[in-house]
Amino acid sequence: MENVVVSTQYRSTSTAVPSPTASYVACLSGARLQIQCLTTFEIVRNIAIPSSHDLKSSKIVWSPPTTPLLPSAPSRPSSTSTPPRRPSRPPQPYSNRILVYDDDTTRVYDLRDEKWNAVISNGSGGMGKNVHVEFGATEDEVLVWSDFTSCIKIWCLKTGRAVEIRDPKFPGKEGRGWGYRPVQPTTASTGGARAGGRNVLALLCRAAGSDILLLLAPGTYTVLNRVELPTTDVAGLKWSRDGRWLAIWDAASTGEWDVEGLGVKTLEWIPGNERLAVGGWDRRVRILSTRTFAPIMFLDHTPVIDVPTAPVYSETIDNTGARSYMLTPQPVTPPKAPLDKNDTGLLKHGIGLLCFNANGSMCATRDDSTPCTVWIWDLCSLRPKCIAVQYSPVKALLWHPDHAGRLLIRTAREEAAVYLFTDDSVQLSSSQERSQTAPSPEILSLSSHMRTPKPTSVQQPPQSPYKFTTSWLPTPPHKKPAFFFAHESAYVVVWPEGKDAILRFKRSAATTTTNGDSVGGVGEIDVDNEE
Question: pTM of the prediction?
Answer without folding.
Answer: 0.85
